[in-house]
Amino acid sequence: MDVGNLVCDRPDPGRFRVHRSAMVSPAVHELERQRIFDRCWLYLGHESEVPNPGDYARRVVAERPLFFARTRDGELAVFHNTCPHRGALVCRTDRGNAEAFRCFYHAWTFDTSGALIGVPDVEGYGPDFDRGEMGLRSPRFDSFRGFIFVCFDRETGPLREYLAGAAEYLDLVADQDPGGMRVIPGSNRYGIKANWKLMVENSVDGYHTPFTHRTFFDYMAGTAGDDATAARNRRGVGRSLGNGHGVMENEAVYPRPIAMWHPSYGEEAKAEMQRIKDDLVARHGLEKALRMCEKTRNLVIFPNLVINDIVAVTVRTFHPTGPAGMDVTAWELAPAGEAGVRLRRRLDSFLTFLGPGGFATPDDIEAIESCQQGFRSGGVEWSDLSRGMHREPRGNDELQMRSFWRRWQSLVAGTPHVERYERGPTPGAVPETAPSPELTAAAD
User: Fold this and answer.
1) Rounded CA gap, 300 and 283, in Å?
2) What's the pLDDT score for residue 329?
C-alpha cells in the first residue's frame, strides 16, 4: 500500500477522493498513532474543570492515561498518570480534590505540584536515592482561552501557532461571557464501531443534515410552528482554517442559549436574552456580537476535537480504538455565571439535540457505522469529497473536510504540508451563500 496516494486531490477538474483503505487498514491506523496522535496538539480538558487548589481530573489521551490538577499555588499542572516507582496509576478517580496524590500500590505520595513527598521506609534506599528525580512526570502542555492541550512531541511548534485560524473561533466561544466559560460537571461517553475520521467528516457535514436529521426539523416545526423548509435552506459557508482545521458556519435558525430568543423559550425569556445581547454588543461591537448570537459553528481542530457552537456549546473528542472503533466523550460548555432557568434551558437544548439519546447523535452514529459496514463490502475503492470545489463554498459543501484530509495525508505520508485555500470569503466574513432549492425539495 502506497500511503502517499490515499488521497487524490485534483483541484483543476474539481475532483477529491479518499481511498477507503484509509478507513479499514491496521497499517494506516498504526501510522496515525505514530505520526498524528504522537505529534499533534491534542485536547485534554478545560481549565474550569479544576477551579480550586487541589482540584483534579483524569483523562486518557492517545491511549495515554493523564491527569491535570490545580496546584496549591493555583497553577495548572498536567501529569502522566503513572507512578515513577513501579508504574501504577496514581490518580484513580475521574475528578475530585486532594491534598496530595498517593499511589495505592506502595503508598508513594506526591504533592499537587508532582513532587515526591512521602516514601514508606525511605531508609531502605541507598545514598543515591534522590526524591527530586522521582516526582511525577509532565507532558508538554499549554492552554488557549481555557482549553488545555497536550503534545507528546517536543519538535512540534507552539500551540498558538498550531491553532492557526481556529483560534478566532475559540475566541467566539470564550468571549460569550465576561466571566469566561465553564464545563458543566459530567460527560457523555460512548463507543462507535467506525473509523474516527468518519466522525470528523460528519461533524462538519451540512449536506446530510436535512436528510439524516429530518425528524428534528419535523419536531421543531410541530412544537414551535417553525418553517421546516426555511430551516433546511439556511445560509452558510465552509472554511479551511490552516493546519487541517476547518469550520462550517451557518445562519442560526433555531434558538441559541447565548442570546437568540425563540418561542420555545417562552415570552418570559425574551427581555432577559435581549439584555444579554445588548451586553455582548457593548463589549464586542455589533458585528461580532451578532455573529456570536445569530450564527452557528461546527469547528474541527485537527485531529480529533470538535466544538459544536449551535443549539448549545458542546466539546467533543474521539480517540481511535482500532481501524473500526472509537471512544467518544462530550461535555457541555456554558457561561461561568449562568445558573437557574438559563442553565436548565441550555442543558435541555444540549440533550435534546446533541445528547446520546437526542435527535442528532443516534442518527449520526447510525450513519457512520453504516459507512464502516459498507467499506467492508468492497467493490468501491474511493469515497468522494469533491462537493463545492468548483464554486464559492457553501455550508453544505465539503471544503472543510478536504482541509482535514490534506493535513492528514501529509502527516501519514511524511510529506510537506501545503495549505490550499479554495475560493471563498475571508475568515470572519458573514456567511451569505445558501444551499440550492433542490436540497429542500429532496428533503421534502
Assistant:
1) 27
2) 97
